[in-house]
Amino acid sequence: MPGDKEEQEGSAELREKPRREEEEDEEAVDAMRVCYQGFDPAAYLQFNYTPPRADFQRADSIVPWKLACLHRAFSEGDMQGEVLVDVGSGPTLYQVMSGCEVFGRVVLTDFLEVNRRELQRWLQDGSSSLDWTPYLEYVCQLEGRRPSASSEKAARLRSVVSDVLPIDVHRPCPLAPGTIPANGADCLVSCFCLESVSPDLAVLTRALGHISSLLRPGGHLLLIGALGESYYLGAAGLRIPVVPLDEAQVCSSLKSSGYQLLQLSIYTLPAEMRVGVDDVTGVFFAKARKP
Ligand SMILES: C[S@@+](CC[C@H](N)C(=O)[O-])C[C@H]1O[C@@H](n2cnc3c(N)ncnc32)[C@H](O)[C@@H]1O
């Protein structure tokens, strides 16, 4: 019957549209993966983790702000358990320098082998494209310890990092099966990852859902990310596109993934921190709980 045919064609169209959209999403995600093939860990560290962005003498420098947020979150006493997973570690270690005192097992992860190798080098013999000592000293000071306790903190960090694993946040199971406990980690940390590996907000929110499957119910997520950023340099001359987020989008993405937002702090980038390696305007820090 003609009516039925039209109906069938109509519903076929309805069925195909999401599939087409899914294919477009996958193509856009693949394009992001290709972008990352040119990522240079040493250049990225130089651009983002040296002064003025990492100036421990300046109260308005971006790295001390991030370290203070992480220190506060881990000192509040509400995050407990054994396993902390850092999602998209890149070549950096600052994000686990407070958490390594609270959790007995820390798992670092990244999509790129060059970044995992960079982390392994520091874990094995302290060699690295960046000297992490001033970071360790600063976090010791935040904890009320002498800066010279930094070597103890470095030893603690080396002793609790159990693995440096490959991850892909665009896969429903981002880590290989069996690499973390079946009921999930007790805490997830992720810094500047989701917005800088996703083509748009919908895919970012989907990736947030994927990583949430790594967290046990009742566990905490600490998310740090860029606001208003459309690109950053992953190597000299390599512009990696970023989803330009605002505060409301961060909140709605967390809410739609089922999180209870416990705290949101915002850092506005002073003019002196705009050093031509990205167009970020601010940074958010979110502490959330998975019910
Ligand atoms: C902007 S860097 C952030 C690095 C570090 N967390 C920091 O705070 O500076 C983004 C990281 O995401 C990683 N990445 C790229 N694609 C990814 C994917 N599909 N899944 C997980 N991580 C990915 C990159 O290799 C890179 O290390």
TrEMBL record:
Keywords: Methyltransferase, S-adenosyl-L-methionine, Transferase. One of its GO terms (molecular function) is S-adenosylmethionine-dependent methyltransferase activity. It holds the Pfam family NNMT_PNMT_TEMT. PANTHER family: NNMT/PNMT/TEMT FAMILY MEMBER, PHENYLETHANOLAMINE N-METHYLTRANSFERASE. This is Phenylethanolamine N-methyltransferase. The keyword S-adenosyl-L-methionine applies. The lineage of its organism: Eukaryota, Metazoa, Chordata, Craniata, Vertebrata. GO terms for biological process: methylation. Residues 1-26 are annotated as: Disordered. Belongs to the class I-like SAM-binding methyltransferase superfamily. NNMT/PNMT/TEMT family. Coiled coil: none annotated. Residues 12-21 have a biased composition (Basic and acidic residues).
